[in-house]
Each structure stands twice: as structure tokens, then as C-alpha cells.
Specification:
By secondary structure, the protein is of the alpha/beta class.
């Protein structure tokens, strides 16, 4: 019998040793609020405590994640949401079990921080991605620590400075995700990845992940506060507030 825990705005289901953590605020495209990020963090902890062998991170509804909630206007909550985003990215990187991002909908801006922190990312071919920050007077500062190691410099330059929307096949080609698969093949490809992970010994898994992620974790620990400050300063600037308000009116 699967273990199911529902704690909106993120949910947890554990089935056959695999934890399924879902962003569960489809009505606002799973935007990253203080409550959402706090819940995701708690569910990741619960998954490890329950002995899960891997975590599948997904989003309910039409989107995986729209990024930080642009409707947030309280400065303290805004700063806290940026801090929590960086903390959840670090948590994913240091989790002793692998995290597979399952992308059945688009990811934007801060949502791509979660995608690139994950050990694996599998997307449907009809899903697209964009770093939308530059259009709003912002910069992908906090998430850059996870995004940049995945991309070639030229690809990062183009995506960050143009906010260009790319499809899943292109995202796979440049390393933003691992695979782009047809919707009909999504379950089988995720299951194949999980089957490969199940053969790994938990001790070997826990010892191996830091070999891959230690450099990014050190970067977060060294420069995370500055990245949060940069993001917060931009978000609260008059230029960004005006651009965000205009975007919401469209």
C-alpha cells in the first residue's frame, strides 16, 4: 500500500521505495512562495526519513513551475522566498538519494533552479523553458549557481540575455535537461531511470553524490548570501516593480 502524505502546497507519495514530491499549486502554475518552498523542503526531508531510494520531483497541472511568485509584494517574504529557493536547491544537491525532475509542463526562471539542482531531468517534448528574468529588470542570480555548471558559456549567454524560449529537445542538446521524450513514453523513461537507480547501494549512492555536487555546494555556501542580496535588490527596484506590474496587466 503506497504511503501518501498530502501537505499542500507540496505533496508526498511513497510507492515501492520511490518518493514522489509534487508541487501542488496548479492554480498559480506552482509558483515558488514561502509556503511552497517550505513545504517542498519538508517533503524532501520526509522522503529521506521514510527510507526512499530516490525522489521524483514534479508539478501538478499545466506547468512544472513558473518561478518565484511575482505577486509577492511584501519585502520580508520576498527575501525569504529567495533564501528558501537557494536553500532548497542546496538541499536537493546534498540529499543522500538521487532526485529526478519529471517535467510534464514548462519551467520558468526560478523553477529552472530546481530542475538544474536535480540529478536527472526528463521532459516531454512539448514542454518548453525560459529564463524570463531579464525582461522584468531581474537577473537569474540565485539560480545561476546551479544553472551555469549545466550549460556551455555561449548557451548560458544567449538564454540569460534574450529570455529565449527553447523546447525540450533543444534543452536536452545543451544540457539543461537530460532527455526529451514523447508524452506516451514519459512513464517508461522515468521508470527506466528509477530502475537503474534501484540497483545502487544506499551507502554507495550517499557517498557518490557529493563527488558530483560538492563544487556547487561550496559555491552556494561561499556566495549564496550575495546572490540572494542581488536578487532581492533587483526584485525590489522601481524598474523591476514597474516591469512586473506591466507584465501582470497583460
Amino acid at each position: 500500500m503506497p504511503l501518501i502524505s498530502s501537505d499542500p502546497p507540496a505533496s508526498l507519495r511513497i510507492d515501492a521505495g520511490i518518493a514522489h514530491v509534487a508541487l501542488a499549486r496548479a492554480e498559480n502554475r506552482n509558483a515558488l512562495t514561502v509556503e511552497m518552498l517550505t513545504s517542498v523542503s519538508a517533503q524532501l526531508d520526509a522522503a529521506v526519513q521514510a527510507g526512499a531510494r530516490a525522489v521524483v520531483l514534479s508539478g501538478e497541472g499545466p506547468a512544472f513551475c513558473a518561478g518565484l511568485d511575482l505577486r509577492e509584494e511584501d519585502p520580508d517574504r520576498l527575501r525569504r522566498s529567495i533564501e528558501l529557493l537557494l536553500a532548497v536547491m542546496r538541499q536537493i544537491l546534498t540529499l543522500p538519494v538521487p532526485v529526478v525532475a519529471r517535467l510534464d509542463g514548462p519551467a520558468r526562471a526560478g523553477g529552472l533552479g530546481l530542475v538544474t539542482a536535480a540529478d536527472f531531468a526528463i521532459a516531454r517534448t512539448d514542454v518548453d523553458f525560459s529564463f524570463t528574468e531579464v525582461r522584468l529588470g531581474l537577473a537569474p542570480a540565485a539560480i545561476s549557481v546551479c544553472v551555469l555548471p549545466r550549460l556551455r558559456s555561449r548557451d548560458a549567454t544567449r538564454l540569460f540575455l534574450t529570455a529565449e524560449r527553447i523546447d525540450a529537445q533543444r534543452a536536452a542538446q545543451i544540457g539543461l535537461i537530460d532527455e526529451a521524450v514523447d508524452a506516451s513514453d514519459m512513464d517508461s523513461r522515468v521508470d527506466a531511470t528509477l530502475a537503474a537507480l534501484r540497483v545502487a547501494h544506499p551507502q554507495g549512492m550517499a557517498a557518490t553524490k557529493p563527488l558530483i555536487t560538492a563544487g556547487i555546494v561550496r559555491e552556494i555556501d561561499a556566495n549564496g548570501a550575495d546572490l540572494v542580496a542581488t536578487s532581492f535588490t533587483l526584485f525590489t527596484s522601481p524598474a523591476a516593480r514597474e516591469a512586473i506590474a506591466a507584465a501582470r496587466r497583460r
